[in-house]
Amino acid sequence: MACTAPFIAYIEEQLNPIDQVLVKPMFGEYGIWVAGKFFALICDDKLFIKPTAKGRAYIGEVTEAPPYDGAKNYFLIEEKLEDSHWLCQLVRVTLEELPAPKPKKQKT
Predict the structure, then answer these.
(1) Integer angstrom CA distances of residue 70 from 41, 48, 65, 66
(2) Helices (H) and strands (E) in the chain, counts
(3) What is the pLDDT of residue 107?
(4) What pLDDT is recorded for position 57?
(5) What is the pTM of this model?
């Protein structure tokens, strides 16, 4: 099953309070970035957040699952998906812990 346009739009709306959110197609599903940092996937109309220690502490009881066959486990967000404030705070604590994006090489 692929992602549906209404679910993608819903996630974008839930993350609207965060500046520079970019949701774009990636390998048949969708990736999510903020200011160049990749932090989540939307696969089969489910939201998966990269696991971090701060994210785990914020969530508490975490459900982990691979977003696609052969992938590492991510945090599967289902229970509080409708709580935009909670979700945006999870994204913020996750982004704090992720490294800055590597600079892109200049084409010569």
Answers:
(1) 14, 15, 11, 7
(2) 3, 6
(3) 72
(4) 97
(5) 0.91
Nearest alpha-carbon partner for 7 in 91, 92, 77:
77
Position 105 scores a pLDDT of 78
Positions of the chain with pLDDT lower than 50, given as ranges:
none
Q: Residue 32 corresponds to which tokens in the numbers above? A: 């999510």
Measured CA to CA, the distance from residue 40 to residue 51 in angstroms comes to: 9
- Residue 47 near residue 91 (C-beta atoms within 8 A): no
Which pLDDT score is estimated for 12?
96
> Identity (one letter) of the amino acid at 69?
D
What domains are defined for the chain?
5-97 (3.30.1460.30)
- Kindly provide the residue ranges of all beta strands, DSSP E only, lying in the chain, ordered along the sequence: 21-26, 29-34, 37-43, 46-49, 64-65, 74-77
Structure tokens at 63: 């459900």
